[in-house]
């Protein structure tokens, strides 16, 4: 693992954008991908402490030294001889007049955090949560018991208490939101690639990084019976994408979750409490409330197209969504488990006149047949190559689906689209309902126009 990561670092240092060119039939190496800062900061190179954890330990040390310095300044400002003042604060300690206990608490916090996170090297938030809780409880008690009316330097003493309180919470935040996530991300990346050989054969690699040629001798993947089309991996994945080779157990887990999601999506579709929200010509939008009182939307619209063709457009041609869907900025298939299950990455455009910024989504998709209808289930998931970024808000698709219902006329179908989304923002209910309804009507209009234009081109 260390050999692999050292080679990765050397590749990154030698990376030259001007030389970023290779044949379409050539397998891309790791130097063809831009490695994120989270991966480099969270990795333990040669068994040493990671960069992000080292910064955390420095921050903890700064906490103790800064608190001690502030306390000494407060003591000196009393105007007494330094030795006498220290004896009064330490030897003749009194909770009502001395601030030495704040320094002592800071030292205890420093000792405990360095012991568990630098020496023992645990990777859990429980220790810092306890230290922060104890610190806050003590500081609150200190404020209540301290004799503020007779204090000679109340401003500096208040600053000492507030600084200790803020820094303690800053340490907890940094460990929970930076150290642990970045180290877990780096560990998942290295473990996932540990099973791959150090020297890759010519015919080995992800289909997303090259195309088949005469020089690649391979056995085609079998197509299941009654399949709409052969399994295919999208070749338009952005170059920042770092390919991950999941273990057999991980792939089975994803498939198991996807199958359960499909069952839940079908149950949601068959619920009888859908209420008509709005209708436009033959298209209707229904709503219902889930257990958390969040509103779920369902579009029902007839469309003049063969159900299998519609399935192909909505599942297998996800990379074409930005061509016709005005709400989608980018859409990629980042991993395919089989013909029926994959993971996609989608970036939405700004909405509500720019009030709602772009969101990105990582979705686990799975399709199957239920009662003569095609069901495409979509639900949030995680992928090691696409962690949450500080540059864009990560939205979440709770269990939703497309249901393509077949009609007596084989050239027509009814599309049901259930949207169960969390945009990670607050909007008034009336505004959100109106925007979601308009978006769904606009979606079916653009889909009809796109399919109609493609049909005319074929004719």
From TrEMBL:
Keywords: Membrane, Transmembrane, Transmembrane helix. GO terms for molecular function: lipid binding. The keyword Transmembrane helix applies. It is a multi-pass membrane protein. Residues 264-456 form the START domain. It holds the Pfam family START. The chain crosses the membrane at residues 55-78, 98-118, 125-146, 158-175. It comes from the Eukaryota. GO terms for cellular component: endoplasmic reticulum membrane; endoplasmic reticulum-endosome membrane contact site; late endosome membrane; lysosomal membrane. It is found in: Membrane. GO terms for biological process: vesicle tethering to endoplasmic reticulum. This is START domain-containing protein. It comes from Phyllotreta striolata.
